[in-house]
Design a protein that fits this description.
It is a single chain. By secondary structure, this protein is an alpha+beta fold. The protein has 3 helices and 3 strands. A 3-stranded antiparallel beta sheet has the order 1-2-3, with no helix packed on it. Strand 2 and strand 3 form a beta hairpin. Helix 1 packs antiparallel against helix 2. The longest helix has 18 residues.
């Protein structure tokens, strides 16, 4: 695993821990750093980070705390508190 990929994984873990501790500003900063590292090194984000971050406000989404999860006819809809939505098939 390359150094940027390891750093992205570490930032993912830190963002998750910060969001659990209700430090949303710090979690948002970790998500932004991970995205910048991925862009600079032409890497894709890990699925865990890609699915649980908001593209609108860079928040790390935790269902029930700052995100709403609903199922609709074959897909899952994640709605952030800012109003942005993501859809994933199941």
């Amino acid at each position: 695993m390359s150094i940027p990929a390891e750093r992205i994984e570490r930032l993912t873990d830190l963002a998750h821990a910060a969001a659990k501790a209700d430090r949303m500003d710090r979690a948002r900063r970790y998500v932004r750093l991970a995205r910048r590292i991925a862009e600079r090194n032409r890497l894709s984000l890990p699925t865990r980070l890609d699915r649980f971050t908001c593209n609108g406000c860079d928040a790390y989404l935790i269902p029930g705390r700052n995100a709403r999860v609903r199922t609709q006819s074959g897909h899952v809809v994640l709605t952030c508190s800012c109003g942005a939505q993501k859809r994933y098939p199941y």
